[in-house]
Amino acid sequence: METVESLMGIEGQIRAFYYDAWGMIDHRLDFGARRRRPPNNPINCLISWFNGLAYALVRNEIAKTHLDDCISFLHSSQEARASLALDLSEVFKPAICDTLIFEAVLREQIKPEWFHQEDQVCRLSELGRGSTLESWVRKTEERVQGEPSFREVIRQEALALERDLLGIKEYRPWRRKI
């Protein structure tokens, strides 16, 4: 890898292959091309919504450390956002966001009234936001078999990064146990 941009390009290609594979799991997860601004169908809408929640959660946990959330490793600090939160949230999106979407689709929890769709733009309704927020809180706050919650894991990840940057302890990334 010669540049951060080339690394991010490869990451983008991998993510596209990953999203393309969703339809192989279940036809209801086949949402076509990823569209962000604005999302054009319910699955794209849910991806954008949950990714935004992940970004906000990670940003909140970074704020509890001494890290500067504008200094990052991958995302450009010129994006006028908390770039470090974008970097760290990438680690947790599959474990939290994508899992919530899979659960909602495969358990047939998604309701048509969750969405407002017109002119190739799909937005969550108030009912959809409320229902998905309940799932989000449950997923990020619950402790399973004595393990820390995702919120706690994210805070631990930010602290591990801080300790590494301060030369206290080498950073060892979080890995999901399967």
From TrEMBL:
InterPro entries: CRISPR-assoc_Cas1, CRISPR-assoc_Cas1_C, CRISPR-assoc_Cas1_HMARI/TNEAP. Pfam families: Cas_Cas1 (PF01867). PANTHER family: CRISPR-ASSOCIATED ENDONUCLEASE CAS1. It comes from Thauera terpenica 58Eu. One of its GO terms (biological process) is defense response to virus. Coiled coil: none annotated. GO terms for molecular function: DNA binding; DNA endonuclease activity; hydrolase activity; metal ion binding. This is CRISPR-associated endonuclease Cas1. Keywords: Antiviral defense, DNA-binding, Endonuclease, Hydrolase, Magnesium, Metal-binding, Nuclease.
